[in-house]
Amino acid sequence: MSGSREQILARVRAALADVPSGEHPPDVEVPRDYARSHGRGGADTLVDRLEDYRAIVHRVAADALPDAVAAALQRRGSRSIVVPADLPEAWTATWTDEIGGGADMAAAGAPVLRDDGDGVGLGLGLGALDAVDGVVTGCAVAIAETGTIVLDGGEGQGRRVLTLVPDYHLCVVRADQIVDDVPDAVARLDPRRPLTWISGPSATSDIELDRVEGVHGPRTLEVLIVG
After folding, report:
1. What are the C-alpha distances in Å from 207 to residues 52, 204, 212?
2. What is the chain's mean pLDDT, rounded?
3. Which of 47, 103, 110, 201 is the most exposed place for a label (fewest CB within 10 A)?
């Protein structure tokens, strides 16, 4: 073992032989000319991948989004949901009206709970999040080739915990947020932000490959692709 270690260290010393003592090795330019996509992206591919992951997917027009949100929550039988503090109120307005809540009920904190957490803590506690029927958010980017939705805690997304505790996640993806492949997504994302990569509902398998859903996140993922 020590012989192998010495061989490795010797190669490192040889590679740094021309570097003056006390100085860092010069920066090495890494070529980035690899293919960023394979030309198989777009909304159709995203829908196919999401459905393969057992997510529920609908494509809707922008002006039909509030009705689509309401329809999804009604199918689910939801009576209460949590949303990020900055989620557009129009997204859930049709639903609150249809279940008899309206603006007054929403303003009182039910059936729509708005989380004002700052990403570190605060906001709604785990008990409140566990008690709601689901969460509605937007996203940062969606990757067609892998069927992956990425959240970065930005506008309309809220804290990471919002999409990990409730059993149902309804996510809105705009057409302009869809990219072909992972390199395209990485180019749009800020690595300093808290990134959550979602590929279908939460699921795992035991040694016999028996699938279990809802272990470390929502059991059901529903996606509305707008545009």
Report:
1. 22, 10, 12
2. 87
3. 103
Q: Is 49 left (phi over 0), alpha (psi -120 to 50) or beta?
A: alpha
Q: Residue 51: phi, psi to the nearest 5?
A: -65, -35
Q: Show Cβ contacts of residue 104 under 8 Å, excluding neighbours closer than 6 positions.
A: none
pLDDT of residue 129 exceeding 60: yes
Q: How far apart are CA 34 and CA 44, in angstroms?
A: 24
For tokens 């309206």, the residue is 102
Q: Which two tokens stand for residue 110?
A: 């039910």
The residue behind tokens 């059936």 is 111
pLDDT at 211: 75
Token pair for residue 186? 């990485």
Task: Give me Rg for the CA atoms of the chain.
Answer: 23
Determine the pLDDT at residue 115: 93
**pTM, 2 dp:** 0.79
220 pLDDT higher than 80: yes
The beta-strand segments (E) located in the chain are 56-60, 81-84, 112-115, 135-137, 141-143, 148-151, 168-174, 178-179, 196-198, 203-205, 211-213, 220-226
